[in-house]
Amino acid sequence: MAGTFYGIGVGPGDPELLTMKAIKAIEKADVLIAPKTEKKDGSVALSIAKPYLKKDIEIVYQVFPMVVNFETTDAWQKNKEEILALLQAGKNVVFLTLGDPMFYSTYIYVYRLLAKEKDINIETIPGVPAFCAIGSKLGYPLVEGNDIISVIPATADKETIDKALAVSNNVVMMKVYKNYPEIVDALTDNDMIENAVLVSRCGLPDEEVITDLPAQKDKKLNYLSTILTRRSKSV
What domain of life does the UniProt record list for this protein's source (predicted)? Predict the structure, then answer.
C-alpha cells in the first residue's frame, strides 16, 4: 500500500503554533522532506518541527530552484520522482513549509505535480501565516468591521501596489526584503506609514520588530519579513 504525502504548514517560527493535526502527522512520518534554497544550508521549517520528529525519521533535503518554467526542470522532476518512489515504497512522507502550505509556498507547485499522478494520497494541513502571528503578538487587529484588507507581495510592480494600497483600509505586505526602501516610500505616499510595523523572523529567537520604518529605511532585511499597516484615518 502506498504511503500518504502530507503538506504541513509549520507556522512562522514558534513550534508551539503547530496544530495538533500537524504534530500527529509529523510524529508518524517515515520521511521528512525539508525544502531549502540553493544558497543556504539547513531548513528553517525543519528547525521549527524538530521537537516532534521521531528519532529514526529519514530527512531528505530537496532544492527547488525558482527559474523560468521551473516545474519542468530536471531538478523539480527529480524531486518529484524521489517523492513518488518513497510513497510507492509504502512510506508516509511529510513536506514542511513555513506559514501555510497554500499561501506563497513552494508546496503549491509540488502539490500540483503530485496531484497529476494516479493513486497518490495527499493531505494538506494548514498552518498559521506569519501576519496572523504578528497581529496576535503585537495586539494589532488585522481587520475589523467593514474594513478591506489586502495582502500585497512587495515584488509586484509599483502601479499594482499603488492601486491595491489606494483601495485598502488595512494591508499585509509580504516579501519586503528585496525593495524595502521603495515600499517605505509607497506606504508614505498612501498615508499608511504612520501605523506600519515590520516584523522579521516572527517567533524565532532572533525576531526583530521595527515600528519606525522611515528611520530604518536603508536596513537590509531578512527574507522572513512582513509589514502590517492601516490607513491613518481609520485609527
Answer: Bacteria
